[in-house]
Write a structure and sequence with these properties.
By secondary structure, the protein is mainly β. It has five domains: 356 residues, no CATH class; 88 residues, Immunoglobulin-like (Sandwich), CATH 2.60.40; 67 residues, no CATH class; 95 residues, Immunoglobulins (Immunoglobulin-like), CATH 2.60.40; 132 residues, S-adenosyl-L-methionine-dependent methyltransferases (Single Sheet). The strands form 17 sheets. Strands 26, 28, 29, 31, 32 and 33 form a six-stranded mixed β-sheet that branches. Strands 44, 47, 50, 52, 53 and 54 form a six-stranded antiparallel β-sheet that branches. Helix 2 runs parallel beside helix 6. The chain is globular, with a radius of gyration of 29 Å. 54% of the residues are buried.
Length: 805
Amino acid sequence: MPTEPHPRSQLRASRIVLAAGAALVATLAALAGGTGENALLLVDPTRSESLWAANYYRAARQIPARNVLYVDPGAVSYQAFVSTNIAGLFGFLAERGIADHIDYLVVMPGTNFFVSAPGLVSDGCAPVTRFGIAGAYTTAFITNVVLGGVSSQRTNRYYRSNNDVYGFDSEISWLSGMPTASGGERYFISAMLGYTGALGNTMPEVLAMIDRSVAVDGIFPVGTTYFMHTTDPLRSGPRDPYYPSVAAAIIAAGGNAQVLFDVLPLTHHDCLGVMTGWADPDIDGADMTLLPGCFADHLTSFAGNFSSSSQTKMSRWIAKGASGTCGAVEEPCNYAGKFPHARMHLFYRKGLSLGEAWFRSMQYVPFQNLLLGDPLTRPFTWLPVVDVPDLPKTAASGTISIHPLATAMAPGAAIERLEVLVDGVTVRSGLPGQGIPLDTGHLGDGWHEVRVLAYDDTDVRAVGRWIGWMEVDNGGRIASAVPAITSGDQGTRFDFAVSAQGSALTELRLVQSGRVLATSSASPDTLSVFGVTLGPGPAEVQAEALYADGEQVRSLPIQLDVSASGSGSGTLAPFAHDYHRKVLTGGSCIVELPAVFDDTLDSAAFTLVTPPSQAIIAAGNAGGYRMITPDPGATGTDTLVWRVTTPSGNSADATVYIEYVDPPAPCTTPVVYCSAKPNSTGGPAAIGSAGTASVIGNDFYLEVFGAPPNRLGLFYYGPDQVQVPLGDGYRCVGGASFRLTPPILIDAFGIASRKLDFNEGPPASGASAIRPGSTWNFQFWYRDPAGPGGTGYNLSDGLSVKFCP
């Protein structure tokens, strides 16, 4: 491991106080967290082990079906990675409506462990030619910076140079480990769940790692973190000066830690953490026990370089029992900032997830360092307890209200906020005990999963959750799927009797985590898929009915058990399915190519026959999908024609019927209109707002300034804009208007404010319902006995607000 003298980069940015950071976080649609709702799985649909790990991990972590992206996670170069993988990633997040709460990107096994990236990152010690595949995804928000050329010692803005913890959120810009309004950077926490190539782990080892990581969450296991001070100055020296102080801090935080002078903690069978520096530690043969949840690493050049047999690989820590580890994918030089700081184990002990603790301890952006394991592992997090006792147990219709109950478990903590997700999408926020309305008319008929997340007010932002489901029936539409069998192997054909009720049915589908597997235009019908396409493990599928008015109705999910054994007979010609696909304009989109075949995954060749006329097809997509980027101005409908070939034959041509859809408009800034006349203060009263006009965010405030002090007034709203003399001023709101009662008292400074609580709802009904996409006009009416006009009252100017999701 070469070394060279270099100044150690220090973070000297001004500290942001916690209150300011909390205020910034409170405006977001979804907060930080470490549950399955915050993770997106990147799954190669052409690799059995990738599908297997995704099926298993998703079931173990109860990850929403919406949070699975079927695409090859790798690329031939970082430039190609940016133009295809990252473009497809952001398009997928927008299309699925989950960008507000995805913090972790987890790469499944079955792909390469690095992305080729020569010439982009400068280093005075050794050339940087590779990024760890997870590190490449970490840079998703700063790809333009990386493509322009950066130093290998570029500071990771989430890094913290002291012992403070702060829960991660990908929507936050970070500076010196704290939220910032300027000068910061956004990231994802990215990890590779397992590497199953040469010198990596076996699939049983990866699955065992998942089991032990899930089992240890929130149980505060008793064990010891061992900091190993070795005789190798190049590998131990960058970190061992910090061992004594960090060990003392762990003990002060209620944990156990020791500094030992050896390579490994031999004869110790209570290892919750191991940090050492050695090229060839005998991890497999060591007389030691790694407890579930353990993070262990050895600082050396090639621990994460699986294309070289030199030095012990970090995969041995996983085989030994760790939940996570990390290592360099090529010669990194021994810059301390390229490896986790000793504080990583303190951050972990204080309640951050494994991924958060690792990333917060990485002083430099992890270009060459690869995190391997389960980043969601949270053994030392005080997990809030959540319950929803009143979710309807019979089919629901209209607007319902649920009253979640949540309790913070951390000493002295309280629940700060609740988030309600339906089918993996954030739809509401609220507080414990508060009625949270759900308009089922916006959900569509059929089965819906409901999740309630509870975030506490600690620095960790610990999150607990409740998961349930309900049926919706507003229009009498139903989708169902009945499996002929529920278990088999990769060669098994799984048949489903599918049907749908309701007029104007367009299409019946069989889907897996939103991925279309097979389709039909008839009801009832039988749809089939082979186990090889689903992947081994606990696979889950649903029937989905699409209607002419755009409504989608889903059936109850069906659990299948697919054995990793077996293979297809290879005697059936493949069958390709037509289907309809909505594609958002303004970005890229992954379009699946559904086909049924009983040959191996890697033997299937998908050929584009006719590309869409209003979109560009990305190069290099070889599996059962294509990434398309709509042309500027793409509109209406389009088609993509394709076929699939296997050793058993060719399919007929199939068509993806594309409908281009504009993305939802973002929240816009409220606009002041109309005018106001002077009041008894000598000037007019001016209306304004705070927060965002997001119904989900539920943080919108109406404000007025310059009104007469200590007088009563009230806000009201309506659909139209007018300017008609009224009182001493003008009425600016027309149409059927609604008051926000009760009246409020203007303070001594002439200021009044009111939160527009979308959960409780304004005190009006019918046409007054404020929904995403609607525009309403607001005004403040107030008493003014000493006003210049003598009428005794006046009004502010008007405020037009367009509300967004």
